[in-house]
Amino acid sequence: MDNAIVATHPHTHETAVHAEHEHVSLPQHRHHFETEDQQREAATFGMWLFLLTEIMFFGGMFFAYLLYRNWYYDAFVVGSNQLSIPLGTANTAILITSGFFMALAVWAAEVKKRGLLVIFLILTTLFGIAFIGVKADEYHEKWEKHHIPGASFDVAEFVNPHAYGLKEQPLAPDMAQKVQIYFFLYFAMTGMHALHMLIGLGLLGWLTWRAYRGEFSAGYVAPIENFGLYWHFVDIVWLFLFPLLYLINRHPLH
Amino acid sequence: MHISPVLWEFLVKWLNNSALFPREASTIAPYADALYFFLLTITMVGLVLVGVLVFGFSIRYRQSRSPEATQVEGSTLLEATWTIIPLALFLIVFVWGALLYFRIYNPPTNAMNIYIVGKQWMWKAEHPGGQHEINALHVPIGRPVQLTMISQDVFHSFSIPDFRVKREVIPGRYSTEWFEATTPGTYHIFCTQYCGTNHSAMIGTVTAMTPDDYAKWTQESTSGMSLAQNGERLFASMGCNACHSGSAAARGPNLAGVYGSKLQLTSGSEVLVNDAYLRDAILNPSEHVTAGFAPIMPTYQGQISEDGLVDLVEYIKNLQTNYRVQQTLTTLQSNQAAPTTPGVVKP
Amino acid sequence: MTEYHDPSNVVNPEHGEHHIVTPAIYMMVFGTLLLFTALTVVAAYIDLGVFNPIVALGIASFKAVVVILFFMHVKYQSRLVKLTVGAGFFTFLVLITMTLSDYISRAWGLW
Amino acid sequence: MSATSSTIVNLPDQRTARLPKRNYINNEDGLLSWLFTGDHKRIAILYLISITFFFFVGGAFAGLIRLELLTPQPDLVASDTYNKFFSMHGIIMVFLFLVPSVPATLGNFLMPIMLGARDLAFPKVNLLSWYLYWLGGLVILGAMVMGGVDTGWTFTTPLSTHYLNTHVVTAAMGVFILGFSSIFTGLNFIVTIHRMRAPGMTWFRMPLFVWSHYAASILMVLGTPVLAITLVLVALERLVGIGVFDPTKGGDPLLFQHLFWFYSHPAVYIMILPGMGVISEVISTFSRKRVFGYTAVAFSSVAIALFGFFVWAHHMFIMGVSNYSALVFSLLTMLVAVPSAIKIFNWAFTLQKGSITFETPMMYAFGFLGLFTIGGMTGVFLGALGMDIHLTETYFIVAHFHFVMVGGMLMAFLAGIHFWWPKMTGRMYPESLSKLAAVTTFIGFNLTFLPQFILGYLGMPRRYHAYPPEFQVLNVLSTAGATVLGVGYMLPLLYLGWSLKYGAIAGNNPWQATGLEWQIQSPPLTENFVEIPVIDYEAYDYEWLAHKTANEVTTVG
């Protein structure tokens, strides 16, 4: 079928497409695309459009964050100081490393190195799991301290920090209630992020399996590339979440 | 054709009792209607224009008369015409509409104030003189009336179509609207924002009266205690006067004459003290700490109803001196029976 | 008409070069990202007043741009993809600024 | 071959004509071949059946609402039931009918053909979109069966989060899922338009139908996710009670409305823009003339999409937004009205010097022009700040958006369905009956909704179960109109069904239209084109068509 299409305007295709790329017919090539380049670019473009929707999806929460941070700054400071900077920083580094291996995986797929591809994908997965593990630990701590928003939310620690061995200024009770909004946004934003991570990890497992079977070793790398875009996007969200949630007013109070 | 007289009578009665255009019963109504008729005129002209074009061309260029179409690419001049003329018209509408908006939402300074508390599914009107009404509102004609409104639960909307005013009644925030009734009569109050099961039952009547009738009504329907008096009692029973005692050494700022003043806050900003500020300062005190005072005031969120807040706000608004505060304070501390002087309230 | 069989129509004008980014560049990007992560934590401990959040967001944006350009290959993509990424952030800015226009000006003047 | 000179319909000789032996309908057999199809045309048909189903479900609720409003007393159903009726009517009509109506049916069917492609860029995503549509639809139907939801389609907080105990979360999840269905459709269109155009199909050779779908798709992709996250927050607020939208806990209920309308205002353009695309095609075809000011119409679609993101707060003028902000949004609203005016005049002037015939699609298109003019102009009423105070939240606004959505969009949808019916099925609909339906719809529509403008100015609030008796006359008129309207909608269902078996064979190009879709067989082949065409003519080039037809005749002769 491809040949029939090319035949309708042979000179242009010959010069423009075939001159640039070697024309290999792959089994993954879909009939409705004229060329594999067209298919590949369509897939990349489609993935980017999907990421646009993700930007707007997180955008709604980022706006809520911006608004309430300005309204209830003191509560946000106290809430932020409840988070552990070492854990947050470590997680940032872990995620960046995971993204780095993902980028290398894309490279390995493009240069058709199957073994490297599988190794990099597994490394990506491992660092991703490490991130989720640290996150789970942080969530668990919040659970024990009754900092999960909802009926069991407890403001005692913010109203009377000295009793808990904290050196922060006590918050007025009305402001302390607003810490709940901080923590809601914290859980909503990191939770949505973690959900994206989990979906990504699931996909990674599947891709690793396919890579192991050699599906991406013949030049068909679109799934790896597009998953890479998704994974890096999830990284980017975290790059913003980290300073916004962990690093509010961390310098010593004077 | 013969129409049965019974049916005829029924029809006439039916049509007579129905309305096609709302009454103009406030000073704003003619302004709103003027813009409405201007917009109607534009719409009609536009519609007729489109109609003439479509039907004119359809008749002139129907296939039997014009078997062959003449291809035309377009015309920049025509495009510009129907870009610029609608744009100009719409901009006129924008300016006119904005002016009307500010006329409707900018209350005159001499407006009398009535509080409206909306809740599922009734309207409570609280007059400063202590008249309480449910699903009803009595106002004098010829005098601007401002409504300070708040919702206890969900969004409501206070609409009086014959006055052409309407505004959302918001939970957690005062909103205002004002009108000046011109014609005595009764008019509909509707809640126009969907608010749950009995949304369509959240209606009432506003009765506009001549100043004499209104004075009479005020006399007859007072509950005996003004809002400020209620507020005074709350002020004492909630212990506000323990800190806001008005003395120089008090832990809270002096509230006498605070209403309408500009207040310096610890956060550095300067605010105008109005109803909304007073209400918010009671519920979220730590965001409104007056400069020079410690943030020690507890929150009263959840401990006081919107009606109570209205009373307190009205009380503080009317505090011109510390006399009252100290009176209540003494009364409370000595645990004596209430003084009998009119206007001073039992604790 | 002269543009019959215009090759630029046949081959999509938005067609981008396919480019393989080398691991060396990835290593550099990786180093930059880690460096700036450290930097943002350090900056958070210094009192810069109103500039604290600005610096934090600036660093985060820089890191995001680096990731987008290199890890996500946008630097090597067609103009269309660049435009698409831009459109996403533009719409996000519209959401933020237009909504903020309400919140910021609520306290202005009293009617 | 045409019967009279007043029609351009050009059908093949019915005695010898047969449907093409091989086409997308009989390419494969069995239910499964439809349920697992990747063919955009089959998915379009699946969508068409689905949205027709939901249209009549939503329409049934509309009928019940009008029946209740026949009398001022709350006598037919209880208040709660009434509230559920209008909520379900709104949710079904907006999310299950209007948003996917033209794009998912006609758009799906025609977009690849108009661009000269074999399919959309992502056929599987397209099919997934249909399954998500049904999943979302079933969740919403589930919410309805379990006891309904009474938030209205706007899910206003804090009512929806704290004061109702109906199936809000279920319905919100349904809408959430439908959002992804819509995103996937839009995403597919954008990629297809950018990446799948046939050789020679430049941007300014694309039919205006494609342009308007492009604009609508941008809105779908960028707007819908904001609605998704908002509904997630509503569900969380309801389930956990954390207070982002709860004023008693320091949240701002207006934040919900900002985020909700950030999607839901552009959603209005998602609904109307594809309809405008249909009207461009129909008017051009039946006046045998290129659309007047093609570039202006194309760019006005994009302008509407762009400005559409800047005006959402005009739904909130009296809700307590800042007055300064209201000024800005009102001004921008006036600006977004201009491109619509441009389109109206361009369509009117397309008729000038044409050779006009009055087939059913054209009659629907004329209906669209009139009703959309009224709908658009009354939008200016509501965009003017001071006027909005009196008109908003009354029946005026109900009448306004029904003029745009039903008078505009549904008319355009029916115009499109009639126009492309021969292409989709290979058979003609009965002409006189369909003209009757068009006229009935037009009369019924005006009778239903014109009185509502008057009711609105009188102050009758929307979503009222009972109303003061002086409003009854107008309400009776409106209900009477709704009955006529209902008949107008039932007719096409019947005769279009009839035509599937008994309609005249349409042939490739019954309208002698210029679009690429009319140059292939009807119904088309699964792969649309035997050979990918090379486009060497502008859209709406009737001289090219005449030339081509003449050539065919000589070849055959």
Could you characterize what this model shows?
The complex is a heterotetramer of chains A (254), B (347), C (111) and D (557). Mean pLDDT of chain A is 83; it is low at 1-24. Chain A contains nine helices and no strands. The N and C termini of chain A lie far apart (75 Å). Chain A is mostly helical. In chain A, α3 (36-71) crosses α4 and α8 (173-212) packs antiparallel against α9. Chain B is 37% helix and 18% strand. Chain B is built from eight helices and twelve strands. Chain B has helices at 5-16, 29-60, 76-105, 211-220, 227-237, 275-283, 306-317, 323-334; strands at residues 112-119, 122-126, 132-134, 136-140, 145-151, 156-160, 165-169, 175-179, 185-191, 203-209, 262-264, 270-272. Chain B has a five-stranded mixed β-sheet, covered by helices on one side. Chain B has a five-stranded mixed β-sheet with strand order 4-10-9-6-7. In chain B, α2 (29-60) runs antiparallel to α3 (76-105), α5 (227-237) packs across α7 and α6 crosses α7. In chain C, α2 runs antiparallel to α3. Chain C has two domains: 20-72; 77-106. Mean pLDDT of chain C is 81; it is low at 1-13. Chain D is an all-alpha fold and 557 residues long. Chain D has a single domain, classed as Cytochrome C Oxidase, Chain A. Chain D contains 17 helices and no strands. The relative contact order of chain D is 0.12. The mean pLDDT of chain D is 91. Chain C binds chain D through residues 1, 3-6, 9-10, 12, 14, 80, 87-88, 91, 94-95, 98-99, 101-106, 108-109, 111, and chain D through 194-195, 197, 199-202, 218, 222, 226, 254, 258, 262, 309-310, 312-313, 321-325, 328-329, 534-537.
Q: What's the structural blueprint in terms of helices and strands?
A:
The complex is a heterotetramer of chains A (254), B (347), C (111) and D (557).
Chain A: H1 2-8, H2 10-18, H3 36-71, H4 73-81, H5 85-110, H6 114-144, H7 156-159, H8 173-212, H9 222-246
Chain B: H1 5-16, H2 29-60, H3 76-105, E1 112-119, E2 122-126, E3 132-134, E4 136-140, E5 145-151, E6 156-160, E7 165-169, E8 175-179, E9 185-191, E10 203-209, H4 211-220, H5 227-237, E11 262-264, E12 270-272, H6 275-283, H7 306-317, H8 323-334
Parallel strand pairs in B: 1-5, 4-10
Antiparallel strand pairs in B: 1-2, 2-3, 5-8, 6-7, 6-9, 9-10, 11-12
Helix pairs in contact in B: 2-3, 5-7, 6-7
Chain C: H1 7-10, H2 23-45, H3 51-71, H4 79-105
Helix pairs in contact in C: 2-3
Can you give me a brief rundown of this structure?
The complex is a heterotetramer of chains A (254), B (347), C (111) and D (557). Chain C has helices at residues 7-10, 23-45, 51-71, 79-105. Chain C has 111 residues and is mostly helical.
